[in-house]
């Protein structure tokens, strides 16, 4: 179990997953200005002031509740920055928790990465690292994922991580492939 003031991290080959910190504000905000991210994740559009509030009151507090509840995490969210080991640069994020947009029960995994760091395997490392942590250290028995049907790169990441296609679902006016990975199926 982590101490209350310990920074939650998951080490992967080329990246580290680390819980959001206030020092991530500028990097996170700049990522959300990239249309390559916000065209796919419009819910992540916000002002610098909104991000300051979200980091303080949503992500940091949510992560604390997640850490305090381990191993019984319920619907709690964990929100982690993707940090490039080589430069210590904040290059994206990987999150997991219960989504209001998907059929309940679910444990949706979401992620995004800077346009400057795509196609290098970092998101696959992040997703696999977070899933392994969840299955090894919490009561999570499955993880869900969705990707827009026309988002080839995201669908490939999900498939590379061992998820099985379940169905197509509509969220608002957009169509997604829905996937699930059960603990006993983890590669």
Q: How many E strands?
A: 8
In the CATH hierarchy, the third-tier topology is known as Aminopeptidase
Structural class determined from secondary elements: alpha+beta
> What general outline do the C-alpha atoms trace?
globular
The run of helices and strands is EEHHHEEEHEHEE
Count of distinct structural domains: 1
CATH class: Alpha Beta
Strand order of the largest sheet: 1-2-3-4-5-6-8-7
Overall average residue pLDDT: 94
Q: Sheet bearing the most strands, described?
A: 8 strands, mixed
Strand content: 25-35%
Assembly annotation: single chain
Number of contiguous helices: 5
- Low-pLDDT runs of 5+ residues are none
Radius of gyration, taken over Cα atoms and rounded to an integer in Å: 15 Å
Distance between the termini: 25 Å
Structure notes:
The chain is of the alpha+beta class. The chain has a single domain (9-185), classed as Gcn5-related N-acetyltransferase (GNAT) (Aminopeptidase, 3-Layer(aba) Sandwich), CATH 3.40.630.30. The protein has five helices and eight strands. It has helices at residues 25-31, 35-38, 48-69, 122-137, 152-160; strands at residues 9-11, 15-19, 78-84, 89-97, 108-113, 142-148, 164-171, 174-182. It has an eight-stranded mixed beta sheet, with helices on both faces. Helix 1 crosses helix 3. The longest helix has 22 residues, at 48-69. It is globular and about 40 Å long. The relative contact order is 0.15.
Task: List key phrases describing it.
5 helices; 187 residues; Aminopeptidase; alpha+beta; single chain
């Amino acid at each position: 179990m982590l101490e209350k003031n310990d920074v939650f991290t998951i080490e992967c080959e080329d990246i580290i997953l680390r819980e959001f910190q206030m020092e991530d504000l500028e990097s996170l905000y700049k990522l959300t200005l990239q249309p390559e991210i916000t065209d796919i994740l419009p819910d992540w559009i916000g002002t610098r002031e909104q991000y300051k509030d979200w980091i303080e009151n949503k992500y940091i507090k949510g992560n604390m509740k997640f850490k305090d509840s381990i191993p019984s995490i319920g619907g709690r969210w964990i929100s982690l920055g993707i940090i490039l080991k080589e430069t210590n640069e904040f290059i994206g994020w990987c999150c997991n928790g219960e989504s209001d947009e998907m059929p309940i029960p679910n444990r949706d995994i979401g992620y995004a990465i800077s346009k400057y760091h795509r196609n290098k395997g970092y998101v696959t490392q992040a997703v696999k690292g977070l899933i392994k942590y969840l299955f090894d250290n919490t009561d999570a028995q499955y993880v869900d994922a969705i990707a827009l049907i026309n988002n080839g790169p995201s669908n490939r990441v999900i498939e590379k991580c061992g998820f099985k296609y379940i169905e197509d679902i509509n969220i608002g006016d957009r169509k997604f492939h829905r996937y699930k990975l059960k603990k006993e199926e983890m590669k």
